[in-house]
Amino acid sequence: MPSVTAYRDFRRAISRSIAKKNIITDPLRKVAIGVDASFYRLIPQIIVDVESEREVQIVLREARQRRLPVTFRAAGTSLSGQSITDSILVRLGRGWDRCHISGDAGRIRLQPGIIGGLANRQLAPFDRKIGPDPASIDTAKIGGILANNASGMCCGVEQNSYQTIDSIRLILVDGTIVDTGDARSVADFRLSHAGLLGQLAELRSTILADQPLAEKIRRKFKIKNTTGYSLNALVDFEDPVDIMTHLMIGSEGTLAFIADSVFKTVVEHRYKATALILFTSMEDACRAIPILRGQPVAAAELMDRASLTSVEEQPGMPPFLKGLNSAVTALLVETRTNEEGELASEVARISESLADFTTVMPISFTSIPAEYQALWKIRKGLFPAVGAVRQTGTTVIIEDVAFPTERLAAAALELQALFTKYRYHEAIIFGHAFEGNLHFVFTQDFSSPAEVARYRDFMADVVDMVVTTYDGSLKAEHGTGRNMAPFVEKEWGPTAFALMKRIKELFDPDNLLNPGVILNDDAEAHIHNLKPLPATHAIADTCIECGFCEPVCPSRDLSFTPRQRIAGRREISRRLAAGAGTAALKRLTGSYQYPGIDTCAADGLCATRCPVGIDTGKMVKALRQEAHGPLANKIAAAVGSRFAPVSRTISRSLDAVDLVHRYTGTPFMERASSLARTATLNRLPLWNREMPTGARKISPQSGGSAQPLQVVYFPSCASRAMGGPSRSENERETLPEKTASLLHKAGYQILYPDDLDRLCCGQAFESKGFADESDRKAKELSTALLAASNDGALPVLCDTSPCLQRMRLTLDSRLKLYEPIEFVLTFLMDRLTFKQKETTIAIHPTCSTRKMGLETKLLELARACATRVIWPQDIHCCGFAGDRGLSFPELNESALHGLAEQVCSCEAGYSTSKTCEIGLSLHAGIPYRSILYLVDEVSQPKWC
User: Fold this and answer.
1) Is residue 365 within 8 Å of residue 273, measured between CB atoms?
2) For the 4Fe-4S ferredoxin-type domain, which residue ranges apply (predicted)?
3) Residue 388 has what pLDDT?
4) Is 637:773 a contact under the CB 8 Å cutoff?
5) To 10 degrees, what angle do helices 240-247 and 183-192 make?
6) E strand or H helix at 713
7) Beta strands in 317-448 (DSSP E)
């Protein structure tokens, strides 16, 4: 074990070239950041976020000098423990997200920090995609996809990472950079590393001279196999450079760092049809697989009865899942084509091929996107379904094995028998039928030696069954990792295992790159360093730490992500349960405050990606509430009860500040506000140049006869207090004025709730953890809107999406509540004439817009108004979070990193939240305003 001094010297050495903020040694942050999606836990000594190839070289150089192990991390969605370490953890920081698509879209160059789903969105206009399609594709990054030889539900073994890699750029442990797609780089490498390439050639010759071994390698890679190194590279390729390229696929960071790659892209078909076919038994379902292989089937997903049972009670599931016989087994079958006219004939061919089978229900395909997406929801919901019902303190384990397809049924039945033997009664089996690949999911308690022994014995029997009985793969697509490393030799035999050890020695002679992963001499490594999951908070206890939430978190590049917030809380709970002293706990909670609580936007987008639906923002709000003392709650209650004068004070203060801004100028204001904030130790909110003015008081018109068209308009408190323009804004009307103008144009009579100035939905109080006052304000608003709308007879428009979403969750269900996008599309499109403006605009769906499923509706509305619309889809949340962008402006800045470059060609941007628009305008370089401004600009009454 390296000494503390070695790590201290390493840190000192790299800090000369790597920014201090990118070198992490805080104990709590190391625990929180160090987790991955597996059931193992190791705490790194140092975490380094690298932002360039040069920084990777520096880390490797200094680590080699001190014999310090290094582990590379992309997204940390690894299920087998291959992205954790107790030494140096190197994460991809910013600067690894460039991509380039070739002229014919047949190739795409991708840096390792790009998320797989984003690469596919870049390719979508060309009807292309990358080959691998893991379930984690919207979180997993290209570096990890390559390092684990990821495949997925549709790519099979023909389109996985190994088969579709074209070239790769590597940084070896000695710091050498080689790009196998660059002739000059390859030529230089052949000279500098002739010995390594020569020995790779010798290994190939050794295998080819051993015919049984060569045949074994070919046979084992006909099905999915990620156990050990990709020995097929030594059989499939003659040039040592090609061998090296393909050995890196599935090497799990144990041979080199992947700095860049070029994929061969594959076709993304436009037309699809899907059927859930219910067979009466596992044997029948498996007997159908070779038949379906001969048909135009793109995917065939197998699910046992326990799998279907695990999701049958979830919303949106087909009712026929309930009451099925215990032996029923399903195949989710999909066919695809680029010719719409061919889809029906393909469906007919597939259905006819299964005519001799007895199915529980008639085979029925659907080509309606909403319907086939609902069927795929069954398959995608299996893993989280088990995770959601597990007991607190247990973990979810997902393993994946593969068998020759002709023996799949027998293997599945034997696996089910092992579940019974070892009392895993909640276990489910599903998988990719064409590749003989089965995933099995179960819950495991590691809190006692007896439970650990149960898991150990179960896995011993699984290993024996897979290897000895069926000659299958112990790891089909999740990578060897730590949990199968002790069994690689058992699967491959001593000769092939010796070759793998030789490969490791060639590239990493000092065993510094991710040691213990893939090759491990410890026969019980799979039951060491098991991750504890103590209870920490009712909202978060079902978290399985998969990391799916991370790409949409606005603080992901600043502080903690939702996964890390939960992992940090678990560590505090674990220390508390272990009897940690008051001083130690105080240090931990102090370390948690800024990254865990202060910089959480609490936007709830994490719940939209979480497999078990956890809204970490709700946990943070609850923690904020717990931190409030009696005085804080009294102040909140006082503000709520005197909301009208408080709101007016805010409005007048904004006007006063704007007046100062007018006479002193922006540079002075920025310097003065920065100095004031520094002097108050960052407690004073930071003024910025996009700060709005106050809105003029709304004076509802009274009297007059009722008109046929009426709407209740509730301007949010943000619109009422700060709905005026900033000094740089060309639009001078306030949002309430603009909304009223648009409604009158459409022929609506506007009704306002009584005592409007005192009303608030409670959002501002809830986000700060004042739950009681937020609920009281919501109840007050509900009463007022019911009265104004005649008990819900009239529609209610709120001009701010976040407020509207909260209103839907908390107000009386009789109210018909609409935010701006919905209201315009539902009520105004037929009453107004739209003339598209010749311009390029940007849109930003707010967090609440996304959670309400209205992001594509915003795009639809924007396209009705402007000739070109840009939607930066990788900007998920602006991070302004009400007023948090003023108190923690770095959150807003980090969340909008890269926005300016994406919208630089736009005239203006449009959204549906005033506070979000402040932050967007500040960091985009263009003004952002409510979409209602644009609608008003391009529309005229139809009767004109």
Assistant:
1) yes
2) 534-563
3) 74
4) yes
5) 100
6) strand 710-714
7) 329-337, 395-402, 428-432, 437-444
In order of 363, 541, 553, 693, 721, the CA distances from 734 in angstroms are: 58, 45, 31, 9, 10
For CA atoms 630, 636, 637, 639, the dihedral sign is positive
Tokens of 150: 């990821």
Provide the pLDDT for residue 153. Answer: 78
**Gap between the Cα atoms of 357 and 636, Å rounded:** 67
* CA angle at 400 for the pair 398 and 405, rounded to the nearest 5°: 145
Answering whether pTM is above 0.85, one says yes
Spatial contact of 438 and 415, defined as CB atoms under 8 Å apart: yes
Sequence-separated (6 or more) residues with CB below 8 Å from residue 711: 743, 748, 749, 750, 751, 794, 795, 796, 797, 823, 827
* Spatial distance between the Cα atoms of 752 and 275, rounded to a whole number of angstroms: 51
Question: Phi first, then psi: what are they for 440, rounded to 5°?
Answer: -130, 135
Instruction: Supply φ then ψ for residue 604, to 5 degrees.
Output: 80, 0
Residue 317, CB half-sphere, CA atoms under 13 Å: how many? 19
Look-up of token digits 């035999």: 493
Separation between Cα atoms, residue 863 and residue 941, nearest integer Å:
19
Q: Is the distance from CB of 513 to CB of 254 less than 8 angstroms?
A: yes
Q: Which of 436, 915, 456, 476 is nearest to 716 (CA)?
A: 915
Q: How far is CA 564 from CA 388, 414, 544, 600, 810, in A?
A: 19, 38, 12, 11, 29
Domains of the chain by start residue, with CATH = 1-95 (3.30.43.10), 99-267 (3.30.465.10), 273-383 (3.30.70.2190), 534-627 (no CATH), 690-944 (no CATH)
Question: Tokens 């190839």 correspond to what residue?
Answer: 53
What pLDDT is attached to residue 705? 62
CB atoms inside a 10 Å sphere around CB 521:
10
Side chain identity, residue 588: L
- Predicted pLDDT at 391: 86
Q: At 373, which amino acid appears?
A: Q
CB distance 559 to 32 below 8 Å: no
- Per-residue pLDDT, 379: 87
**Residue bearing tokens 């795409």:** 108
Determine contact, residues 2/43, Cβ cutoff 8 Å: no
Q: How far apart are CA 763 and CA 643, in angstroms?
A: 13
Q: Which amino acid is at 89?
A: L
Count of helices and strands (H, E) across the chain: 39, 27
Residues forming a β-bridge with 47: 24, 89
Rounded alpha-carbon distances, angstroms, from residue 276 to 61, 330, 367, 803 = 54, 7, 13, 40
> In terms of residues, how long is the chain?
944
How many CB atoms are closer than 10 A to CB 269?
16
C-alpha to C-alpha distance for 93 and 90, rounded to whole angstroms: 9
Given a cut of 50, the residues of the chain with pLDDT beneath it are: none
Strand bridging mode 795-798 / 749-751: unpaired
DSSP β-ladder status, 866-870 and 837-843:
parallel
Strand partners, 834: 939
- What backbone phi and psi angles, to 5 degrees, belong to 458? -60, -45
- What is residue 293's DSSP assignment? H
In which residue are the tokens 């976040």 written?
802
Per-residue tokens: 226: 């990620």
**CA dist 124 to 130, 247, 266, 269, 334, Å?**
10, 29, 11, 10, 19
Q: Residue 496 class from Cβ within 10 Å (0-12 exposed, 13-18 middle, 19+ buried)?
A: buried
pLDDT in tens, 212-249: 999 999 999 999 999 999 999 999 999 999 999 999 99
pLDDT the model gives residue 702 = 53
Burial class from Cβ neighbours inside 10 Å (0-12, 13-18, 19+) for residue 497 reads: middle
What is the residue type of 553? C
Rounded CA-CA distance 381/362 in Å is 24
Q: How far is CA 189 from the centre of its chain?
A: 37
In sequence order, what DSSP letters do the residues of 251-271 get, joined into one string?
-TTSS-EEEEEEEEPEE--SE
| 844 close to 878: Cβ distance less than 8 angstroms | yes
